[in-house]
Amino acid sequence: MDYVMVPVPEDLVVDVMQHVARLVAQASAVAWDEDAAASFFDSVDESERSLLAIVARHVVADKDLSEEDAATSLELPVREVRSIVRDLAETAKTENRRPIVALREVTTVLRNGRSVERRLLVMDSQIARAIRAHGRRSSAGPGAEAVSEPSAALPE
User: Fold this and answer.
1) Confidence of residue 5 (pLDDT cuts 50, 70, 90)
2) Which of 85, 104, 108, 150 is most buried (CB neighbours < 10 A)?
3) 3-state helix, strand, coil in the chain (%, to 5)
4) What was the pLDDT predicted at 137?
5) What is the pLDDT of residue 85?
6) Minimal CA–CA distance to 127: which of 119, 135, 116, 117?
7) Do residues 59 and 102 lie in contact, with contact meaning Cβ atoms separated by under 8 Å?
8) Residue of 105, 110, 109 whose CA lies nearest to 120
9) What is the structure's pLDDT at 151?
10) What is the pLDDT of residues 34-62, one digit of tens each?
């Protein structure tokens, strides 16, 4: 393994080392697969499972889901939704995996020309499909056939 010496000001050595450690940890994170996502879905509590299901449903339907919309659907405050996202990320991190759901900030231009920052909940589309399929199998009960999903329309 080759090494490169990089000069770093003495007062920034600790910060640089922490940054390097974070980069190494991110690079070593394992990607999600269907079985891991299903197992993760089963291992989390009900509020986390509900959030995963809502995000997965919107991702599969190719619809944006803001944290406000998720909070309304779950009948929780936005602050609690953020806490659930953080808890999911921490749980995934303990399993050496990337966050299964994340917040992404986007700028939306309103009709009046004003720009507004929105936070959207995002998930990998393959993982979203796996969670939806697992959720349908789980809700169908043991030995029951999984019901095929209707078109991508979302209930309002």
Assistant:
1) confident
2) 85
3) 55, 10, 35
4) 83
5) 95
6) 135
7) no
8) 105
9) 42
10) 888 889 999 999 999 999 999 999 999 99
3-state secondary structure of 20: helix
Are 76 and 53 spatial neighbours (Cβ–Cβ below 8 Å)? no
Question: In b/e form, how buried is each residue of 31-60, taking b as 16+ CB within 10 angstroms?
Answer: ebeeebbbebbeebeeebbbbbbbbbbbbb
CA torsion sign for 83, 84, 85, 91 is positive
* Predicted confidence (pLDDT) per residue in 110-123, tens digit: 899 999 999 999 99
Cα 39 to Cα 36, 44, 134, 140: the distances in Å are 5, 9, 9, 17
Whole-angstrom distance, CA of residue 56 vs CA of residue 131: 7
> Tokens standing for 8?
């770093």
How many Cβ atoms sit within 10 Å of the Cβ of residue 64? Answer: 14
113 in the Ramachandran plot: left (φ > 0), alpha (ψ -120 to 50) or beta? left
**How many Å from the N-terminal Cα to the C-terminal Cα in the chain?**
56
The C-alpha angle 54, 123, 117, rounded to 5 degrees, equals 85
Q: How many CB atoms lie within 10 A of CB 87?
A: 15
